[in-house]
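Bug #77: duplicate submission created two jobs. Keeping one. Sequence:
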Amino acid sequence: MIDRRGLLAGGIAVATLAQLRGAIAAEMVDTLKIFVPANPGGGWDQTARTIEAVARAGGLIKSAQVTNLGGAGGVKGLPTFVNQWKGQGGSMMVGGMVMVGAIVTNKSPVTLKQVTPLARLTGEYNVIVVPASSPMKSIGDLVAAMKKDIAAVSIAGGSAGGTDHILMGLIAKSIGADAKKVAYVPFSGGGPAQAALLGSQVTAGTSGWGEFEEQIKAGKLRAIAVSSPKRLPGIDVPTLKESGVDVELANWRGVFAPPGLSEADKKKMLSFVDALAKSPGWKAELAKRGWTDEYLAGDAFGKFLAEDIQRIEAVLKDIGLA
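Kept job's structure:
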């Protein structure tokens, strides 16, 4: 039988093993170089800074450098990463679904097919809302109105061709409506979109939960559906799927290595990302920031990315933006 002293020794051994793994990872990625194809302060930049902070605290790296080059949904910075960071071990780019759409709408000659997929890390699902004074009580009411006259149902959201626009295109396609006729009203940020909703200038709106959470809790906006595969923890709002609309969509964020890596460097980066994504520090940041854990690495992420690119290209063509 194993006594208490043996159990404690075993626990110490496990902790020591975890520390050794961290030390190995630290040797593997001495200086982590992160390229962010967006300006400081946005979602991709926050992801990069969080990766740096968690990796430092967990002993996975000794130092880090973050480089920002924003514009056009990541399309401006992507060629720099592909051409100037080629073959550089210990480096990664933060990106996500927004970039997939921006590549299509901007007809970029450089695409995500030219980088090395490492991992999908996080996801943020959309919520669909209506003003509290709206007669629409459910997503079913909104769908019925769209089926009757889709051009008469105005939807507030972010930039044209972005996640919000793609979601409404998928919904229109799912219910048999013409996605090109979606009366989508793009706004540069959550504030203006909220103002349009609160002033009943639009029928409905969609964005990440965080954009509308305060107004939903205040009773000024009514949440009628979320785009997640199952209900979000602590949020009593039905999913599109359970409401009869066969659509789910996450604004995912992930990391990519540059092209031209050796197999050894690629393996090292995959090991680093795996250690990061499974660390207590990363999980704590997910909970603190309200990010959904969508970890998917290596070839599995590459397969997902190829399918997502195909899906987004198709819906942007349906919308008339590709």
